[in-house]
Design brief:
CATH superfamily of the largest domain: Aldolase class I
Helix content: 40-55%
CATH architecture of the largest domain: Alpha-Beta Barrel
Shape: globular
Largest sheet: 7 strands, mixed
Oligomer: single chain
Length: 497
């Protein structure tokens, strides 16, 4: 039984300009974990990282034709309007290898299995949720010429419909083999982090996120033991010289006091056994305390993606966050006191945003002094909630008749913000932000123009809010933002001259 795991080519899309993320960071390790599990079961699995190798579709087709796998498993990531091009490549490959079983896995297939299998007969099945156990069982069943259509965790066509049975999420994460890794030279050439997954699932229930429901039967937060995490990192340091890591966990800190204790235990092990490393994490504002941050920094913490989400108490409650400004302010203060680089997760515009909500969010960002460079300011001021199938907001907006299924197979839901003035502001600010990001070269903090451009953006946004509050539909916000772009462009030109 020859198994090939394919990470297809990543195709450029206009949505890349917005830096919209279509799947969580943990997706970067799905194929590696699947390959390691298959090999542990005795399957000689091959990984074709077409995205890392930057292969063309023609090169992918030729390489897979040479391998002639019996089972071709494809990590099908959503690539917006270009997803169909990947499916066309799979159709061509299947035409070359008619006897191969073609399955897809990942977040997009998990939440679009019915649509994918109904619209694309080239696909034999779709794996739901975490793929390791399902792919191993699929391989064994195919090898024995058994009935694979009823396997838990696998969607397939049966009786004229797409059907599946859920597979419970794996509880014992320490018993899993470490994920297979791509060629270090390829990873370094692309500037990709060395990702480590210390936990799976999430204990939150955010309306805009589907991580908690990814395996299909519910995904509680499950943490690996700190000792197991550090063993993997030690192995990566020995074999690849890795000193910089990024935890791909949806929420690095586990729930409550027990989660913070685990974080401190992990920090102590990192400090003792991996001195000199640097790492980043993602977490929520209320999950940090002074002791935890201090000990993580002593263990090598240098950056945190912090979920602040909104400055509106009403929207924070709708999102299901369970915290407010006191927790947000405290977390930012703790990280700054310890010299940790901070990146904020934030939604300025949501489907139900009112002008008051936008004002509250803008004021929070100002109070927290987060609008400090052109790229960060542009992102935070225009970030609009992306509604994807599998989230509570997608379901709710569809039920309310406010969702327009868009892009490939309706995986993304387009919407108009309920308040027409906020919808208008969102679109106008988005246009300005894209211009600024293009001029700044999509860089990180310290882009050309610096504080001067950030000040222009802040003042323009504030002026738009004031005019909308005062003049309503007659407010000339587009003119304000056009003037802001002209001023920002002059600063960029001066710095570049």
């Amino acid at each position: 039984m020859r198994v090939l795991l394919l990470d297809p080519p990543r195709l450029r899309s206009p949505r890349d300009v917005d830096l919209v993320v279509e799947s969580p960071l943990s997706a970067a390790l799905l194929t590696g974990y699947a390959a390691a599990s298959l090999r542990a079961e005795g399957f000689p699995a091959t990984v074709l990282a077409a995205d890392l190798e930057q292969l063309t579709p023609e090169q992918v087709r030729e390489r897979i034709g040479r391998e002639a796998p019996d089972l071709l498993a494809v990590h099908l990531r959503y690539q917006w309007d270009r997803t169909g091009e990947v499916l066309e490549l799979l159709r061509q490959i299947k035409a070359d290898l008619a006897q191969a079983h073609l399955t897809v896995y990942g977040h997009f297939p998990t939440f679009s299995a019915r649509e994918l299998l109904a619209a694309h007969p080239v696909l034999d099945s779709a794996v739901l949720g975490e793929p390791e156990d399902t792919l191993r069982e699929l391989g064994r069943t195919l090898e024995a010429a058994g009935d694979w259509r009823t396997l838990p965790g696998l969607a397939a066509r049966r009786g004229g419909a797409v059907r599946w049975a859920a597979r419970p999420p794996r509880a014992d994460l320490d018993g899993m083999p470490f994920p297979e890794r791509a060629d270090p030279a390829l990873v370094e050439a692309r500037g990709i982090h060395t990702y480590v997954l210390g936990s799976r699932g999430c204990f939150g229930h955010c309306s805009f996120c589907y991580v908690g429901s990814f395996p299909g039967s519910g995904s509680p937060w499950r943490g690996r033991s700190p000792a197991a995490v550090v063993r993997e990192m030690e192995a990566l340091r020995r074999s690849r010289g890795s000193d910089h890591f990024y935890f791909a966990d949806a929420n690095f800190c586990g729930p409550g006091p027990a989660g913070r204790r685990r974080g401190r235990e992990l920090a102590a092990l990192l400090r003792a056994r991996l001195p000199g490393i640097r790492f980043g994490i993602e977490t929520r504002a209320p999950d940090l305390d002074e002791t935890l941050v201090r000990e993580l920094v002593a263990g090598g913490l240098e950056s945190v993606f912090l979920g602040l989400e909104s400055g509106s108490p009403r929207l924070l409650a709708h999102f299901g966050k369970g915290f407010g400004e006191p927790e947000q302010r405290r977390a930012v203060q703790l990280l700054r006191e310890q010299g940790v680089r901070l990146c904020a997760g934030f939604i300025m515009f949501a489907p139900d945003s009112r002008l008051e909500d936008v004002m509250q969010s803008f004021r929070l960002l100002e109070r927290l002094e987060l609008l400090d460079d052109p790229v960060t300011t542009a992102h935070l001021l225009f970030h609009r909630e992306v509604v994807l199938r599998g989230t509570a907001d997608y379901r709710r907006l569809a039920e309310e008749g406010r969702l327009e299924p868009a892009s490939f197979l309706g995986y993304e839901g387009r919407y108009r913000i309920a308040d027409p003035q906020v919808e208008r502001l969102s679109r106008a600010v988005g246009e300005l932000a894209r211009r600024v990001l293009a001029a700044a070269g999509f860089g990180e903090g310290g882009a050309a123009g610096g504080e001067a451009v950030s000040r222009v953006l802040r003042e323009a946004f504030r002026e738009c809010l004031d005019r909308l509050a005062r003049d309503g539909p007659g407010a000339r916000v587009e003119a304000v933002l056009e003037d802001a772009w002209c001023a920002a462009r002059r600063f960029f030109e001066e710095v570049g001259s």
